[in-house]
Design goal:
The protein is α+β, with helices and mostly antiparallel strands. The protein has eight helices and 23 strands. It has helices at 5-26, 29-33, 93-98, 103-129, 158-161, 229-232, 264-278, 289-301, and strands at 35-37, 41-42, 45-47, 50-53, 74-76, 79-81, 83-92, 136-139, 149-151, 169-173, 182-190, 194-198, 210-213, 251-253, 284-287, 308-310, 316-320, 329-333, 342-345, 350-360, 369-370, 376-389, 396-398. The strands form five sheets. The chain has a seven-stranded mixed sheet. Strands 8-13-10-11-12-9 form a six-stranded antiparallel sheet, with no helix packed on it. A hairpin with a 2-residue loop joins strand 2 and strand 3. It is globular.
Length: 404
């Protein structure tokens, strides 16, 4: 049967969508470990139950002493709006015509567009999971920056710099608008210390201006990206509408910017502190590639050989055991985890709440729709979901770790 719009629609729905879902849901090590569910999504929001305080009605008394005033556990029930994640593909009419009588050529055309979009979407979703929730990828150093040359702020991690790839379309501005200096600028070069962009900005950026993917910047009520680990696993800040407190915050250990060895002692202390706070301990540890090598090098130098754990999605992890009865961890590295940082997560307290899995937009019955004003058709892949935590104090963060 010759390739046409009908076969394109059918292929996208029946031949491509199941593998796309599999690739996107299991293609990144962190995402693959997280539970997904729709049962707690009402309308456009995930409804959570969060423990934020303890029962004060306890205490010891003398004989016939007055009993403590009854108390109760404190809970919040925030409603967290899911975020809208999308990818679009575009196929020109001439390209479709050229392959309409050759099913193999048509399949190659379709596969090239779909596989490219899926690869790019996987990268962007992974970036968001480790991000700051407001879309910020990197900040700018005003000194030396011009309208076409953007200098990264001192200390910008390599994990962020490599996320800004040539061809990526970005917005630049302050944290209030994210677009006041420039909108929809294309990266033409990344030197590792600065970006070259076109067209020129409306004015030179200043210190602390931010770089975001075009259209994705915004925090608070304007947040568009997934809530990332840099927000969720932290000792301060408001998450899901609940301010940090003794119960509703994560253990955090930094060293004032001075890097130190990533060793068992740091992990043990973090596990102990977290267990004291929550009664639970992390069971999944993700870090940057350099910090992972630093930790693994210690095992080799001490003639220690660690077991490996099999994870969801076909991933493998080093097994890290403190040896004191605290739960062991599965240690992995990820390209998007911030440099010199490690996140210890109690995975049961993290979940992808979703209103839909990855779907093609086809409410009118067709996956393909005409692109206005040009000879082309487009298709849109989407997922409505948010990363949520129900217990911040069961996870921890280590910073300022040595890398090799």
């Amino acid at each position: 049967m010759p390739a046409n719009l009908a076969t394109f629609d059918q292929a996208l729905k029946e031949d491509y969508l199941p593998p796309i879902r599999e690739q996107l849901n299991n293609g990144n090590v962190l995402l693959a470990q997280l539970e997904r569910g729709t049962e707690d999504v009402v309308g456009r929001e995930a409804v959570l139950s969060i423990h934020v305080s303890r029962n004060s009605g306890v205490g010891s008394r003398a004989e016939r002493g007055t009993l403590p005033t009854a108390g109760s556990q404190g809970y919040e029930d925030p409603r967290v709006r899911v975020k809208y994640h999308t990818a679009r593909i575009d196929v020109s009419v001439p390209a479709m015509r050229a392959s309409r009588n050759d099913e193999g050529a048509f399949a190659r055309l379709l596969d090239r567009e779909v596989s490219g979009a899926v690869k790019d979407l996987k990268r962007d979703v992974n970036r968001q999971l480790y991000g700051t929730s407001n879309g910020v990828i990197a900040t700018i150093e005003g000194t030396g920056s011009t309208t076409t040359n953007i200098v990264f702020a001192a200390g910008t991690p390599q994990s962020a710099i490599r996320q800004l790839e040539v061809g990526m379309v970005i917005d630049i501005g302050n944290d209030a608008t994210f677009t006041n200096v420039g909108t929809a600028r294309t990266i033409t070069a990344n030197s590792g210390t600065a970006l070259t962009i076109t067209p020129a900005l409306s004015g030179a950026p200043v210190d602390a201006d931010s770089i975001v993917r075009s259209g994705a910047g915004g925090g608070g009520a304007d947040q568009k990206e997934f809530s990332g680990l840099q927000t969720l696993v932290d000792s301060t800040g408001t998450v899901h509408g609940v301010a940090a407190s003794t119960v509703w915050s994560s253990y955090e250990n930094s060293n004032g910017g001075t890097r130190r060895p990533f060793n068992d002692s740091l992990i043990e202390k973090a596990q102990h502190e977290t267990n004291i706070r929550s009664g639970e301990s992390a069971n999944f540890l993700v870090t940057s590639n350099g910090a992972y090598r630093s930790f693994a090098a210690q095992l080799k130098s001490q003639k220690r050989f660690s077991n490996t754990n099999d994870l969801r999605g076909g991933f493998k992890a080093l097994s890290v055991d403190s040896g004191d009865g605290i739960e062991s961890l599965s240690l992995v590295w990820d390209r998007d985890c911030p440099d010199s940082t490690a996140f210890g997560l109690h995975l049961a307290d993290y979940k992808i709440h979703e209103m839909s899995d990855w779907e093609w937009m086809d409410e009118d019955g067709a996956v393909l729709s005409r692109v206005s004003g040009v000879m082309a058709y487009e298709a849109t892949l989407f997922k409505f979901a948010e990363l949520c935590t129900s217990r911040r104090n069961a996870s921890w963060k280590l910073q300022d770790l040595l890398e090799v």
